[in-house]
Amino acid sequence: MSDTSFDSQTREASFGDYFALLKPRVMSLVVFTALVGLLVAPGSVHPVEGFAAILFIALGGGASGALNMWWDADIDRIMKRTQSRPIPSGKVGAEEALALGLALSGISVIMLALASNIVAGALLAFTIFFYVVIYSMWLKRSTPQNIVIGGAAGAFPPMIGWAVATGGVSIESIMMFALVFFWTPPHFWALALFMKSDYSEAKVPMLTVTHGRKVTRQQIFGYTLLLAGLAIGTGFTSLGGPVYWAAAVVLNLLFIKGAWTILRRDEEVAEADNYAAEKSFFKLSLLYLFLHFGAILADAVLMRMGVTFGGLL
C-alpha cells in the first residue's frame, strides 16, 4: 500500500518528474494500439475528433500509471527496477501523485465521452478502474495470476479506439484485445525470470516466486502457443491481409522458437550466460506486439488506397 512518508523526502519536482509518473513507455503502447484500433475501424473519424480521442486515451493511460505508482510506492522502493521512480526516489510526493492521477482520470473519461461517444468513455473509465483497483490494489499482491488477469487493463486501448470510430464493440476489436491480453503473460514472465530476486524481496507473488522458474518456463511456452493460434485466427477476420499474414507467420514461428528455447533451459545454464535467451525473448516480445499491430494498420491503409485509387489492390 502507498506510503506517504515519501513526502518528507520530496524536493521540488520538475516537469520531467511528473511526466515520469505517467509511465510514458507504457503510455506509448496504449497510444499506438488505440490509434490502430481507431484507424482500422470501419467508417471515418474527423481528424480533430480522432486527435482529441487519442489525447484523452493517453491521459487516461497516464492517470492509471500515476495512481499505480502512488499505490505501489512501498514496493517500488524495494525493487531495484523501480527504485528510481518519482515517488520512491523522493522527487514527487505520494499525495501529489494521487491528486494528479485522480484529476487526469476524471478529465480523460469525461472529455473522451464528450469528444467521441459514451461507449468509448465508459471503456476508458473501466480500464482505469481495472488497472488501479482490480490489478494494482487486489491482484498484484494476492495471486500469481496477477499478470494473467491484470493484462486485461493493457488490452483495452484498441477496443477503446475502435469504439471511438464505431460507437461499439465487434469481433475485430475483441481479437485485438485478445492479442494484447495473451501476449502479456509471456512478456512479463520472461522479465521476471531475469529480474531474479526483485519480486520475492518485495513480496509480490509473481509466478517465479510462488511456483518456481521451471513452472514459469512451462507457462511461457503454453501461453505462447495460445497466442500464436490467436494471432493466426485474427488473420481470418477483416483485420487480416497479406502484410498481416506474413508478419503473423514469421513472428509467431520466432516467438514459439524462443519460448521453446526458454522451456528447455535450466537455471544453472541460464545463470551462466546471464539469462541471454530470456532477455532475447523479452526484447522479441516488444517487437512482436508492435509489428502485429503495425501489420494490421498497414493492411487497412493498403486496402483503403486500393479503393481510393480505383481498386488497384
UniProtKB/TrEMBL annotation:
It catalyses: heme b + (2E,6E)-farnesyl diphosphate + H2O = Fe(II)-heme o + diphosphate. Carbon 2 of the heme B porphyrin ring is defined according to the Fischer nomenclature. This is Protoheme IX farnesyltransferase. The keyword Iron does not apply. CDD domains: PT_UbiA_Cox10. Interacts with CtaA. Its EC number is 2.5.1.141. It is found in: Cell membrane. GO terms for cellular component: plasma membrane. The chain crosses the membrane at residues 26-45, 51-71, 92-112, 118-139, 146-168, 174-194, 220-237, 243-263, 284-307. Keywords: Cell membrane, Heme biosynthesis, Membrane, Transferase, Transmembrane, Transmembrane helix. PANTHER family: 4-HYDROXYBENZOATE SOLANESYLTRANSFERASE, PROTOHEME IX FARNESYLTRANSFERASE, MITOCHONDRIAL. GO terms for biological process: heme O biosynthetic process. It is a multi-pass membrane protein. Belongs to the UbiA prenyltransferase family. Protoheme IX farnesyltransferase subfamily. Converts heme B (protoheme IX) to heme O by substitution of the vinyl group on carbon 2 of heme B porphyrin ring with a hydroxyethyl farnesyl side group. One of its GO terms (molecular function) is protoheme IX farnesyltransferase activity. Pathway: Porphyrin-containing compound metabolism; heme O biosynthesis; heme O from protoheme: step 1/1.
